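Batch job 17 of 40 flagged for manual review because the log was empty.
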Amino acid sequence: MNRPLASLAVVSSIVALVVACRPASPPPAGDRDPSWFAEVTRACALQASCAHGHQSNEKRDPGKCITAWVAEMGTKSDGEGGPSARQVCMMHAKTCEAAHACEAPADRAAAAFCASHHETATSCDGNARVECGDDADEAERVDCATVQGTCELVKHSGGLTESACVSRALCPAGAKEGRCEAGGTVLTCQDGAAERIACKRGQRCVARKDDDGIERASCEAEGAPRCSAPGARYCEGERLVSCMGPRGNEKGAVEVTDCGALGLRCEGQGKTAGCYVLGKPDCSIDDAPVCDAGVMAYCALGRKVEVTCAAVGAAQCEGGSIPVCQPSAATGAPPAHGH
């Protein structure tokens, strides 16, 4: 039931990229890689080379980047398998400047606020709660009026202090930690702080009482069992079921990736369960990327690939704990990785 993802066919550049980004040895007939594979492996090499040192491994390691990329394609919020707008941008990027532009924050007002408020992770800006991440694209802003509340400093029972939208109307004393609202929305309450989480297409809000006796709710994939063990992964046919919790009040959040719809297969158990290329794998995601004569080699979904640094506008490949393609002066150097 593996179906190539036609919407990802790259019309203009795929021929050149097959040369620039190729398997160490061609896969046998019938085990062909998806049409998007070469383009994405090149994009992940660029993303890894341009990543900041404090960013997560899925940004800095090209092999982990493509695993996260597939999850993003297979669980896109509109329910349609295919690249997100960010991914389309990354597939066309050829320089670090262009790659960073793809990560531009959706909320520029929040990013501007965070740029001038480095002292806390959360703050109140008028009656809006602003959460700042390590990077500008992680800045988020929520108008507390949307939950009939006000932005206040809250000290949670565990000792954590944060700015939050406090809603005495929706989250009075004794309110459930989570409940479902109409339209597939989760409403969470923690020490008076309210948050609404809109479930993605293909998900539904499920309310439950956990083993500790506390009533909670979370967005869960249609047709998938609730995940009770954070980190658990398994294959259900050609679908990869992953437990992403704990994530806020979503103690057992389930994420389902349709590997088959992406031209891949689901295989493995436990931590090794994932989407892989067709045929016999010739490498492991644990294999470290290496540099050799201007070429970055790494494991992408079970396929050993080689990306010439020239294909990402770079002059040379530099080794380290995570090798990177070092862009030439014309394309701008990437930020320090802190190897």
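Reviewer: the log was empty due to a logging misconfiguration, but the result itself is present. Helices lie at 14-20, 37-50, 57-60, 62-74, 85-92, 96-102, 108-115. Unflagging and moving on to job 18.
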